[in-house]
Structures are given as C-alpha cells and as structure tokens.
Amino acid sequence: MKKFAISLLFAGTLVFGQEAKMLTLPEAISYALQNKADAEKARLDIRRGEAQIAEVKSSAYPNISFGSNTAYNPLLQESVLPGEIFGAPGQQVKVAFGQKFTSSNMLQLTQVLFNQSVFTGLKAAKTTREFYIINAELTEEQIIERVANAYFQVYQSEQMLANAENNLKITNETGKIIKGLFDAGLARKIDFDRTEVAKNNITSSKQQLENAVEISENALKFMIGMPMQQEIDLPAQTFDPSILPDSDPGSFDERTELRLANKQVELLEWQKKASEAEYYPTVALSANYGFLGQGNKFPWWNGEKNGVFWSDVASIGLNISVPIFNGFATKSRIELNQIEIEKAQADLREAKMGLEMEHKNAVTLLENNMTTINMQLSNVKLAEEVLANTRSNYQYGLATLNEILDAERAVTDAKNNLTRAQLDYKLAEIDLLKSQGKLKTLKEIN
Fold it and tell me: What are the record keywords, sorted (predicted)?
C-alpha cells in the first residue's frame, strides 16, 4: 500500500507539475490537423480512393484461376444400345459409360477485351479520389474554423477575468478611501460595509470567471485533440482588428465547397455513363488448359499401370455478349441518374448564392463591430473619468457611495462590452476569411 501511495503521489506530481505549453493560434491549428479524428478520417478517405482505383483496375487485368474437381461414381449411368453393335442381333444391351473415378484439373485465364463499364469505372474512380482530396481540404478548413473560434473564446474568457480582477482592484482602492474617511470620522460604517459586500460579490464573480476560463481552455484542448491534463497558456495578444472589411468578394469558383459540389456533379455524371455502358456489348477472351484423369482407382497418384488414364485438354474461346432488350431497365436507371445530376446542380446554384450572402454578412458584421469597438473604447475612457471624478466628489461630500458603486459597475460593463465587441469582430474576421476561401492563412498568422 505504501508503494502504491508513493506511485500515485509521484504520478500526481508529474501531472500537476507539468509545464504549461505556450500555444499560438497556428500551433493550435497544426496540432488539431495532426491529432483530430476528423482530419485522420479525411486522410483515410484519400487512401480509400487509391484502393478503389486499384480495385477497378483489377477488372482490366487478366484473371487467372485454377480449379480441381475429383469425383467418385459408385453407380455409373447405363445406356441401352442395339445388340447388332455387339454381335447379338435382335437384342438390347445395357452398357455403362464412364469410370468409377474422374479428376479434372483446369487452369483458366480470362481477359476482358472490351467492357465499357470497366473503362467508365476507371475514370470514375479517379474522380472519386479527387473528391476525397477536396473533401479533406474542406475538412481541414472546418477544423481551422472551429479551432479559431474556440481559441478566441479562450481569449474572451481571459479578458473577462482580467476585467474582473481590475474591477476588484478598483473596488479595493475605493474601500481604502472609504476606510480612511471612516477612521477619520468622515464616513459612515455602513458605507465601508457596503464596499466590503461589493468586493465579496466581485470576488465571487471572479471565481466564476476563472471556472469559465478553465472550461473554455478544456473546450479548446478537446477541439484540437490535446490531452486534458496538458496545461496551456496563450501568448499576450490583444483583440485588435487584423483584417479590414473588403467589399470585393472576388471569385467564388475556387471555394472548396464549390469545388466539392462540382466534383459531386462530375461523379453523378460518371454514374450516368456507367448506366449508359450497359448498352454496349462486352468482349472477353478465355483460355483453359488442364488434365483429365479417369479410372477405377483414385486418380491422383495412379497411372496407366493401375488402370487410370490421364489426358490433357485445352480450349480457347471468344465470348461476346450483346444486350438487346432488358425491359427498359437501363433507360430507367439513366433517367434516375439524370434526376440526381439536376438535383446536384440545383444545390450548386444554391451554394453559390449562400457564399455571396456569407461574404456580404461578414463585411457588414465587421463594419458594425468596428463601430461598436470604437464606441466601447470611448465608453471605457469616459466611465473611468466618471469614476475618478465621483471618487473625488465623494471625499468632499459631493457624491454618495451609491454613485461610486454605480460608476465602478459602469467601468466593468464598458470593459466587458468592449471585450464582447472585440470577440465578435474576431469571429467576423473568421467568417470573412471563410467566405473568401482564405481560412488557411490563419495557420501562418504570428
């Protein structure tokens, strides 16, 4: 038990004494792309595309197989023949054909010479691989977006905590002023007690914000696939806007979502061509070579001396299959394929409109949030001036404690509103980069 307790203590020391990792946004994104299950599955899909190409190619290669069949015939089939054959006119003679044992061992080769479905499948498989590659890019962009949002949520939580700590510092300073006045007989005890209550409330809120910081950090670690026991620190960084509104959306053709939708339409077109391939004839070459053994003993290890006779057999064939009529089944499948293509094209048009809307909304949000940030900066400065003047007036009996506490709350509210506006701006920046197809630039931001 002692050894077990010491081991637990040592393990706990390693975990809690672990050095915090400084985590920048590009590092968080790179970590997620390496460790998140979605990214790993996207890479596996690319490998699956390679395997599908190899599978379809196999249909065009020669197919070689070997078959062996050995049978024992306890009762041989008898045929009735005219007696004249055996020198017995006017009689019927029963004759058994075959041998008690037969063994057929054949090597077979089949080579497709023409099959439109195989050729179409090869091209479709390559398109499928390209689809998986584009889908992996889209998955990467989605991971970047989620990680960036979670990363800035941590910044917001930390900034809100810093605001609470600053507010607590302000309230402590107010408490010292009031205590000094109280000790000098210039303030009431109830005023001093109220500042203590306000300080306790702020301390409680600060504790809740510390929990919020931890929760947001855990959310970020989950988002990037990092162990929960790993402590992280974010570098000192402000929420200053780094991207200005750009009303020019540019071309949406290179957006990953549209490239993926176009590739989906292409896949459906190949599926239609695969159905059309059913109208084409198929041509295949086949060749067989083997040995046939017959006798009254088990053939494998016996020869003519033991009454078993072996002979080799061979054949070469050309197999041609021409479809003539299948009840319009192929025509119906082609029609269904065309319907799916038209539906995908409608989704593509809708996606283009959605991208235009996303860009316009992102630009509007950036402009509105920039206005809000400037307004909140002015509010913070004004609230701090009001608090300083109110404190001064309180010392001269020109303001009440309620006015001081209200001024302190106004400073806190202004700073929190500024923090929220800064977060909204950073999130709008992400939306703008997404609408422009530039999310990957976040991997390079210092």
Answer: Cell outer membrane, Membrane, Transmembrane, Transmembrane beta strand, Transport
Q: How many CA atoms lie within 13 A of 83 on its CB side?
A: 7
Query: How many other β-carbons are positioned within 10 Å of the β-carbon of residue 411?
Result: 22
Report the largest interatomic distance among the alpha carbons of the chain, rounded to a whole angstrom.
153
Give the per-residue pLDDT at 295. 84
Give the containing element (helix H, strand E) for 258: helix 256-276
Give me the phi and psi of 64, to 5 degrees please.
Answer: -115, 130
How many other CB atoms are found less than 10 A from the CB of residue 59? Answer: 14
Q: What is the pLDDT of residue 2?
A: 40
Contact partners, residue 59, CB within 8 Å, separation at least 6: 112, 115, 118, 121
- Return phi, psi of residue 104, to 5°: -115, 125
- Flag residues of the chain having pLDDT under 70: 1-18, 86, 88, 238-240, 242-251, 445-446
For residues 404 and 406, give the distance between their C-alpha atoms in angstroms, rounded to a whole number: 5
What secondary structure letter does DSSP report for 235?
P
pLDDT digits (tens, 9 = 90+) for 155-214: 889 888 988 898 888 888 888 887 887 787 777 788 778 888 888 888 898 899 999 999
Strands ordered across the beta sheet of 282-295: 63-72, 101-114, 282-295, 308-321
**What's CA 431's distance to the chain center, in Å?**
19
DSSP 109-152: EEEEEE-HHHHHHHHHHHHHHHHHHHHHHHHHHHHHHHHHHHHH
**DSSP class of residue 295?**
E
Residue where the block lists tokens 């109280």 = 182
